[in-house]
């Protein structure tokens, strides 16, 4: 495997060489659980789930950490607005994020640490930074001294004169470009004890401390949305390396989901929650996942209902081929991906090119079915399953297979449709084209699509009637 990744820190594509041969350590900045997740929030989960699956499929033992920020100004403000305890508000929306990831088939992480469970590690990191001259306490707060770290700006390209941390002025800052590691306690807010007095951690400190605790002082890949490059990830690098850690060796950032060219966010009022999209647009979870993962992870994904529907239709064509072969040639085992698919993913997870390869194989497979070559079609369907599995959308995977809730009704439906098809076949044999067409049209109106093949007619239910 020769995987090349677009490293945000170094810019050009770099060959992935793990710190420990055969192992891959990955940290993904997870949710700040302030509210219901929308499709923009979960895009990073889907994008880097593909990375994880690809690494695992190529023999890597993957440690994948996705944190939960469960203490933050936004969480405190939202909870206060709704008259709820902050911890309840955070826990409620943490469960909502877990449900969203599960709905979209995102594999659970190796570990999912919460910020509030790692205050000890954060205090330890601050003590190291103060001892090294990179941080200072002031009036119960602790700040990182940006000017003490000459490499500041190495990830984002920001110049010191242009730095704005986007946080309140703070009490006792030496320089407004310094950022907060520890916030002194305020009346009515949660706090934890520290050598500098009671308080709570700053957002940037949380990820550095948790990444170090679970993956070590140096690890392979740090992932997150492109909106986190500055200041969050820039500050993570500064505080971690200033504390003596090598920290992340590769940095990957996914693009936003946009609507009308604007980043999807609660403040824009264009939030699309997972349940809302599934119900309103009428797509299945696997189709929504296919759509969110279909663009290159670094590109912007411009959302529209129409684009989602078109993507769902494209997935249905792939899915129909796999089911068709599975029903006619026997159970299709997962095969191996093609060289073209591997080449696409090894070039910075090039999913669009990988999908083009899948469509090519599906086209060849349908030709094999039409020619009566079921063994060849079965082999090709196995390849399609393998490739779709890497993308997390294998239609025969247990996660996406819904058990029949009403087997008696299904059996009755089979009998009725088969009887209609036999009547149509007899009409065709008698050259009674009007009757044959009428049967076909009536089935179509009922949501049954009929496909004529050399082996006889086949039928499937349209999406609306599944």
Descriptive overview:
This protein starts with a strand and ends in a 5-residue tail after the last strand. It has 14 helices and 15 strands. Helix content is 45%, strand content 15%. Helix 4 (119-131) packs across helix 5 and helix 11 (351-370) runs antiparallel to helix 12 (374-390). With 466 residues, the chain is of the alpha/beta class. The longest helix has 25 residues, at 305-329. Strands 4-3-9-10 form a 4-stranded parallel beta sheet. Strands 5-6-7-8 form a 4-stranded antiparallel beta sheet.
pLDDT averaged residue by residue: 92
Distance from N terminus to C terminus (CA atoms, Å) equals 40 Å
Total helical segments: 14
Strand content: 15-25%
Please tell me what the overall shape is: elongated
Index terms:
four-stranded parallel β-sheet; four-stranded antiparallel β-sheet; 14 helices; elongated
List the helices and strands and how they pair.
Elements: E1 4-6, E2 13-15, E3 23-28, H1 39-57, E4 61-66, H2 73-81, H3 86-103, H4 119-131, E5 135-138, E6 141-144, E7 179-184, E8 199-201, H5 203-215, E9 218-225, H6 229-242, E10 247-254, E11 257-259, E12 262-263, H7 274-281, H8 285-292, E13 301-302, H9 305-329, H10 339-346, H11 351-370, H12 374-390, H13 407-429, H14 433-445, E14 448-453, E15 456-461
Parallel strand pairs: 3-4, 3-9, 9-10, 11-13
Antiparallel strand pairs: 1-2, 5-6, 6-7, 7-8, 11-12, 14-15
Helix pairs in contact: 2-3, 4-5, 5-6, 8-9, 9-11, 9-12, 10-11, 11-12, 13-14
């Amino acid at each position: 495997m020769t995987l090349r990744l677009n490293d945000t820190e170094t810019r050009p594509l770099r060959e992935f060489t793990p710190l420990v041969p055969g192992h891959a350590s990955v940290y993904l900045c997870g949710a700040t659980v302030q509210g219901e997740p929308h499709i923009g929030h979960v895009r990073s989960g889907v994008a880097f789930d593909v990375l994880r699956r690809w690494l695992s499929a190529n023999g890597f033992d993957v440690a994948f950490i996705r944190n939960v920020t469960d203490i933050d100004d936004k969480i405190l403000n939202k909870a206060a607005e709704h008259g709820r305890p902050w911890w309840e508000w955070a826990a409620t929306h943490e469960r909502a994020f877990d449900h969203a990831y599960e709905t979209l088939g995102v594999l659970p992480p190796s570990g999912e640490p919460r910020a509030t469970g790692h205050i000890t590690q954060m205090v330890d990191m601050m003590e190291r930074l103060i001892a090294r001259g990179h941080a200072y306490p002031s009036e119960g707060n602790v700040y990182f001294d940006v000017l003490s770290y000459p490499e500041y700006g190495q990830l984002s390209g920001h110049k010191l004169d242009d730095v704005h941390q986007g946080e309140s002025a703070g009490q006792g800052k030496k320089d407004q470009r310094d950022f907060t590691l520890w916030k002194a306690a305020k009346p009515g807010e949660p706090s934890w004890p520290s050598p500098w007095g009671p308080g709570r951690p700053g957002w940037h400190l949380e990820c550095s401390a948790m990444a170090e605790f679970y993956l070590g002082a140096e690890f392979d890949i740090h992932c997150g949305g492109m909106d986190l490059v500055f200041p969050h990830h820039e500050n993570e690098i500064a505080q971690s390396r200033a504390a003596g850690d090598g920290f992340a060796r590769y940095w990957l950032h996914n693009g936003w989901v946009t609507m009308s060219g604007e980043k999807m966010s609660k403040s824009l009022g264009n939030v699309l929650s997972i349940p809302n999209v599934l119900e309103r647009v009428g797509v299945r979870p696997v189709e929504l996942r296919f759509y969110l993962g279909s663009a290159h992870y670094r590109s912007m994904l411009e959302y529209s209902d129409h684009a989602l529907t078109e993507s769902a239709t494209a997935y249905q064509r792939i899915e129909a081929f796999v089911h068709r072969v599975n029903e006619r040639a026997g159970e299709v085992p997962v095969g191996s991906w093609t060289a073209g698919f591997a080449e696409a993913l090894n070039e910075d997870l090039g999913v669009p090119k990988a999908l083009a390869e899948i469509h090519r194989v599906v086209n060849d497979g349908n030709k094999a079915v039409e020619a009566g070559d079921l063994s060849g079609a079965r082999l090709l369907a196995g390849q399609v399953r393998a490739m779709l599995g890497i993308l997390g959308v294998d239609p025969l995977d247990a996660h996406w297979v819904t058990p029949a809730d009403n087997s008696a009704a299904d059996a009755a439906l089979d009998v009725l449709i088969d009887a209609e098809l036999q009547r149509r076949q007899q009409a065709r044999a008698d050259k009674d084209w009007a009757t044959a067409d009428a049967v076909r049209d009536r089935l179509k109106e009922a949501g049954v699509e009929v496909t004529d093949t050399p082996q006889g007619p086949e039928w499937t239910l349209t999406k609306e009637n599944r």
